[in-house]
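agent: user wants the full assembly modeled, not chains individually. Plan: 1) parse entity lines 2) check alphabet per entity 3) run joint structure prediction 4) return tokens. Steps 1-2 passed, three entities, 1115 residues total. Proceeding.
--- entities ---
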Amino acid sequence: MAHEASRAGMIRNVVVIVALWEIIGRLGLVAGGALPAPSGILLQLWADRADYPQHVLATVSGSGLGFLIGNVVAVLAGLIFVLMPATLRLLRGVNIAIFALPPIAIAPILNLTLSGMAPRVTLAALGVYFVTMSATVIGLSQYDTRSGDVVRAYGGGNWMVMRLVRLRGAVPDVLSGLRIAAPNAVLGAILAEFGGGGRWGLGSYLLGSLGRGDPFRLWGIGLVATVIAGLSYAVFAIISERVLGTTRSVTLNTAIPAPASALSPIGRLALACGAVLLPFVAWWAFVTFTGVPDMIAKTPLGVIDYLFVGDQSAIARQKLIAALAETLPVAFVGMVCGLGFAFLLAVLAQMSPAVIRAVMPIALFTQTMPLVALTPLLVLLVGRGYAVTMWITISVTFFPAFVLLVQGISRVPQSVLDLPRAYGATAWTEMRKVSIPAALPYLFAATRLTVPRALLGVMIAEWLATGTGLGNLLNQSRGYLDYGMIWTVASVSVLLSVAIYYAVLEVERATLKRLGMQMVE
Amino acid sequence: MGALPSRFLQPITNRSARAAARGEGISLTGVSKTYRGRGTEVEALRDLNLDCPEGSFTALIGPSGCGKSTALRISLGLESHDGGTVRVAGKTPAEATRSGLTGVAFQDAALLPWRSVRKNIALPLEVLRRDPRAHEEQIAGLIRLVGLDGYENALPGELSGGMRQRVAIARSLITAPQVLFLDEPFGALDQIRRRSMNVELQRIWLETGSTALLVTHGIDEAVFLADRVVVMHANPGRVVAVIDVPFERPRTPDLFSMPEFHRLADHIAEVLHGT
Amino acid sequence: MDRRQFLGTGLAGLALTALPIRAAAASPLAMQAAWINDAEFSGYFLAIDKGYYPENGLELTYLPGGPDVIPESTIIAGRADLALTTPDTTTRAIAEQGAKFKIIGAQYQKSPHGIVSLKKNPIETPADLIGKTVAVPPVNTMTMEALLKVNGIARDQVNIVPYAYDPTPLVRGEIDASLDFTTNVPFTIGTLGEEAHSFLLYDHGVTIFNDTVVVTEDVLKEKRGDLVAWLRASRRGWEENLVDPAAYPPQWADTWFAGTGRTIENEIYFNTAQKGLILSDAGVFAMTDESIEHNIEALSAIGIRATRDMFDTTLLEEL
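--- prediction returned ---
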């Protein structure tokens, strides 16, 4: 019943939002009509209907193939990681690097080294790999140990437990991973289309249309991209809901999982070294394997040479540092604002579920709307100063954090909430004692997860709107055929993401340990 | 009694075939086990000796943390031990479980939520790489035996707690085990349902005639079901007494209210609490 | 066209984007264009449609470009034999990175790049840019810097922001001018209800070509004959196309221009406007000694050490 009511409320809110949008659009209230009315967008969509099928088909086939390949690899990798935990440690560096890759920095590299559909497929596959891989690992790890015992009690080995218990038990987790991964694939494909030079694809269409000065069409393309991403999300959400009922154990497993087998210090050191080195080895192998000339494709040594040894290295370093000085503060402030705002609203929403119902549709909408499609629209709305960068950074960090926080807080059992109330606590006390501490681990998890997104958001804004910082440096370097700089920006942005990720992780560990709380994966 | 198809009963009731295996129930000799964590050591079992003759029903009782479940898990090869020897049906635990000589039911039914009752019961067969289709009759017989006719294709989520536990009992019998391990199989049930399950378990066990080891918290349950009650103490886990239960079989629910029953139960409680 | 047909062509279009135009026993040659399919490449579309490449013994693969496509990269990576480039980028890569490129022709005698503003707030000369905000595609920053340098304006006197080829900010007055093709964007501005004003960079000291035909030295050595054939077929396509710039674009609405989101009127405008920038007394693609000299002068103003030997006019001489 409550579920039904909240769904009805959600629908009502969507209707209200669309109606408001229509009025605002009709009256040209925002940015001199840069936000067109939905009805106008639909009319334009209808007028352009002949253009869409080929573009949609190209984007869907690119992202679909990438989605398929990325997920097959991710599930297999997750399986191997769980069966052989040492491999997970060894590949941690590669995994984190893939997670932290800002697609915008990688797209030019893929377009330099691969051809045809390959860059789109690769970028889409990279976008889904981490999400699905970690969902698979979590799903396979958190199996019902009691069922595992039954299998072992009949002499079943690890593989038998995997086959009979864990694989099927992981299905809901994998599905929820796929659900989140699907929009990533669409975003990846569109980003690669920007630089792929193919005729077809929503990214190509968007670029061709940018010069037309027609906000109705821009929004139309943005909406179509959003619908594709949203549909792929919905498909897996529905399947996942169906499957969950027959997967969740009826009773709660209270057994404490056995600690992972300890490794010798030497083994641990070897694995850690391997984890750090492997991403660079993979980079090297990729460059060698694609067989692209040295002038275009830089190896790790090539980048070091470019940045520290070559004749132009001083200039390159200067440019890079200047760009970082522009990008990092904005990214940082934007992230802090986005996360802080999300935290505040999520905690408030705990007291008033109406807030959640109002914000969730917008949150889901902007989450599935590809950033590249959103940015030109935001430029029209707020101009191209720091405001647009801040807006983008806040929106890319706020919504995922908000969704995660709301989910986290809603897991607090009712009895825990009832307790302070039973002692006559005020709303503020209740929030301070229960909601805020309960949300804290999720805030950290959200921070870790949104670091690469924040960097991506800032770089897209810089590239398309402000003409500053790393995003602009990347773009300009292409104009100068400065391949060394393209690779440098890509590797520096990945390294930065990884570094910030680990910094947050350390703070998180220390804080949660002090508070005696569990980390959220 | 006699409700089982003869094919099901055959391997267990064929006493002549079992004669060679006489004296090969469960035997743990001088078993010790220490858990080592970061800087802490917990001696779970010290010099544990436990002998369950073939065809007997032994109850292992003791306070939480006395190592009774650990002893059972060691016998099943689910955990390693540091010293001593363990023999189940004359073999090492790994050999015994792998050859399908054992059956087990845990405190939680631990049914796979996506499998029907029938398929859950067939799970051990799959683990032992036997063909479940060749055992359809046994499965049907066991479903009848535990009184779940008509629920063959139900999912665990559609069953009550007691019904799920009966599925687990049926599952523990599907391999026609010589040795049956029961780790607090009714621990999650209420007192009333637990007693009726005890009566049923006795009936089923009598039909199979296997060697049974029951780990339990409940003195009533231990006295009602077992031939011998083994009392353990914690820190370190060790056996402090073995008490014979002399009541005739089959035992009926009336036994729960008889003075002899209560006298024995009180005695066990005293040993248990060390008074 | 019904839906099924449409999906069919969609699939085909997807698979065939980079498929060669077939001809028996012809030499394969791949060209990388500088931009998405628009009137800028009309001459090649016409030559492909009329079979001028097979007639000259070529099996041509046409690769469209886009804002993120660096044409020079495609030929370095060996995915195309020749590319249409901007000469400043190419000569800089030769001079500073030792890239082994040769420029063998120039589509535009005068680069169509210009400063586009609104008539109601016109930028008439480079000097008018001082204190104004100009949107410049990041890949053309060098070109903009050249204009400022040649006209004695300091880089920090003008506010340069990135340009995504969208005229809306200009029409809305958010920026004062943009660096764009004068052959193209004024039309769009017109459809948005404003009148555009523009001047060519070429007329203010940035005397450079555009869509220079560039090959690597290796390709020049190995495929010299094919390149001459390509120049011959392409020249024919261009000459025929420019006889009546309004004649061909409508024929390509469902082929070359399908799905670009641009109108055919726009392409006709473009095709008409570029006529004077392409045609030369010495023939399409010509590079006279005088014009090469102008290029070298303009490029040296922004510190690019362009030299005469970067331009190879011997292929044109064979035509």
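agent: reporting back. Chains B and C do not touch (no CB pair under 8 Å). Confidence is low (pLDDT under 50) at residues 1-23 of chain B.
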